[in-house]
Design goal:
heterodimer, A: 260 residues, alpha/beta, Rossmann fold, 2 domains, two-stranded antiparallel ribbon, 28% helix, B: 323 residues, seven-stranded parallel sheet, five-stranded parallel sheet, 9 helices
Chain lengths: 260, 323
């Protein structure tokens, strides 16, 4: 089983933006960068599949500047069980939108031929939730999105995915793209010896030309970033006791806010 | 002069509320800038959506009826929508950012090689489309533009208000050519959750509990209030990771993003990862013992008190108003 896991480096969720007003671009220079937390579920699932089957080869694939993403690949992918990594590093991809990124990833995946591709359900920076599904379309593969559990059976798989008010059970042949979220597994932490050994694993750096690809032009662009609208001050409800405060809150939600 | 197509999603015989919300908003846009609103609806057996769609602003509803539309299939839905876009040439296609919409929109956009923007909360038309959407988990908004014909834009449920400003919609039959042999992933079963449970992402009211509930046995206080309000029950990451409630309840960065009319945070301190999932709620109520908890910074109403006293009284008061 040849498995690819697509990962993205994103700003840590603790990053604060505090925009003073509309800005054409975010200053990302001071952001602490981490592996996208959803991609960790994809990495972990790939490793578990390999462990369960007793065979397999896992490639972590990412798009970004090699100097910045190398350490993430080592610590969060290679040290927890991925066998190799591919970095697509091309300055022309700086403004890439999800479809452009999917086209680049598809070029890597077509070249190396995989049985299964795992992605996170979304990246926590642009929150687009598009690349995994687009990748499946560009490869002309089926996909199952937002999987909560997975069962690989010979040349196919069965996955469960949460929908509003229930669960869909989906069966798919291989090859297939899966997008992974929380609840699927508990990602393991890398051990120090494994981080040391991960330094020996092969990491390929390639650009678009090396993939025989013209850098795809983005079809969407951010005109500007704006801060969230300010919220009014919190009305603190005080009363003789907590139960009276609760009744007063209910009255205000009913009469003032007209919500209940 | 945009002609705006709105995908009217149907699941288990029910039309998603977000479809009517999108029609309402699209109608506002075309009333200001010209153009028409077209509903698009796939179903397995004839049912009339054009009356309601018309009321919420659709000028016409394009409907395809085929046995293949009995159960959602991303490939077949994509085929039908791609053919609709190619034949009717709308200037913009709106799809609700639901489980189905998030599955469908990126595949459709990739097939059509058109721009795709998800989870939008605002649309405007100034010499072209500008889409507003939260990024960085709601810490800021991106104002986005698209450089292709017929962008596919996902709309977050509850982002737009319902407006019954339309009239009568013409029903137009559409016959897509469906190639079922290309549909490789198949939904083999749908398991429905217990009756009476409200889906978190679509709920108009959400009541969530955090560490302040002290133990899994007290989550029923959250469920009781949610029940009285007709709300969905949510949870902070802390109590999901502690195993007190199932992950499907988690609101926040690695859980669900919600934007209800009312969000009641009980015993939740308001970590940045939690705020990420609920800060665009229209009205936020915080109940927390610690008056310095960050949750009060985003709340509209707050009670700095003991939730074990507040919640039962609040549940009772809500029941009184409902009587």
């Amino acid at each position: 089983m040849k498995i690819a896991v697509c990962v993205k480096q994103v700003p840590d969720s603790e990053v604060r933006l505090n925009l003073p007003g509309p800005v054409p671009e975010l200053d990302r220079s001071a952001f602490t960068m981490v592996i996208n937390p959803y991609d960790q579920f994809a990495v972990e699932e790939a490793v578990r599949i390999k462990e369960r089957l007793g065979q397999g080869d896992i490639t972590a694939v990412t798009v970004g500047p090699a100097a910045k993403v190398r350490e993430m690949l080592k610590k969060d992918c290679l040290a927890v069980g991925c066998d190799r990594a591919v970095i697509v590093d091309d300055a022309a991809l700086a403004g890439a939108d999800p479809l452009a990124v999917a086209e680049v990833l598809a070029a890597v995946l077509r070249r190396d031929r995989y049985d299964l591709v795992l992605c996170g359900i979304k990246a926590i920076d642009d929150d687009s939730s598009q690349v995994g599904v687009m990748l499946a379309e560009l490869l002309d593969w089926p996909h199952v999105g937002y999987i909560g559990s997975l069962d690989i059976t010979g040349d196919g798989l069965t996955a469960r995915r949460e929908i509003e008010g229930g669960v869909e059970v989906v069966a798919s042949p291989l090859p297939c793209v899966l997008t992974c979220g929380k609840g699927l597994n508990e990602p393991r932490l890398p051990s120090l010896p494994n981080i040391m050994k991960a330094g020996m694993k092969p990491v390929e750096v390639v650009d678009c030309a090396g993939l025989g690809l013209t850098p795809p032009a983005p079809l969407t662009a951010v005109k500007e970033y704006t801060p969230p609208p300010p919220r009014g001050a919190c009305v603190m409800i005080t009363a003789d006791d907590d139960a009276a405060a609760a009744r007063e809150l209910a009255r205000r939600l009913h009469e003032e806010a007209k919500i209940i | 002069m945009p002609n705006i197509a709105v995908f009217i999603e149907q699941r288990a015989g029910q039309i998603k509320q977000v479809a009517w919300q999108m029609l309402s908003e699209a109608r506002q846009l075309v009333d200001a800038h010209g153009g028409e609103v077209w509903g698009v609806h796939w179903h397995a057996a004839d049912c009339d959506v054009s009356t309601t769609a018309g009321r919420y602003g659709a000028h016409k509803v394009v409907t395809a009826t085929a046995p293949e539309f009995e159960r959602y299939d991303s490939e077949l839905w994509t085929q039908a929508l791609a053919q609709f876009v190619q034949q009717h040439k709308p200037d913009l296609l709106l799809i609700g950012s639901t489980a189905m919409g998030k599955d469908l929109a990126p595949r459709l956009a990739a097939r059509l090689r058109t721009a795709c923007i998800s989870d939008a909360v605002g649309l405007s038309w100034n010499d072209g489309l500008v889409v507003k959407r939260p990024v960085y988990a709601g810490k800021c908004f991106a104002q986005m533009t698209a450089r292709s014909a017929c962008p596919v834009v996902g709309i977050r449920p509850n982002a737009f208000a319902l407006r019954e400003t339309g009239g009568t919609a013409a029903a137009v039959a559409f016959k897509p050519v469906l190639d079922a042999s290309r549909a490789k992933a198949k939904v083999t079963a749908v398991e429905t959750a217990a009756a009476g449970k409200v889906a978190l992402t679509e709920a108009e009211i959400v009541v969530s509990g955090g560490r302040g509930i002290k133990g899994p046995e007290n989550y029923r206080l959250i469920e009781d209030l949610a029940g009285a309000l007709g709300a969905a029950a949510g949870a902070s990451r802390a109590i999901v990771d502690a195993g007190w409630v199932d992950y499907s309840h988690q609101v926040g960065q690695t859980g669900k993003t919600v934007a209800p009319n009312l969000y009641v945070a009980c015993g939740i301190s308001g970590a940045i990862q939690h705020l990420a999932g609920m800060s665009s709620s229209k009205c936020i109520v915080a109940i927390n013992k610690d008056p310095a908890a960050p949750i009060f910074k985003v709340a509209d109403y707050g009670i700095a008190g003991d939730l074990f006293a507040v919640l039962p009284a609040l549940t009772e008061a809500v029941r009184e108003f409902k009587r």
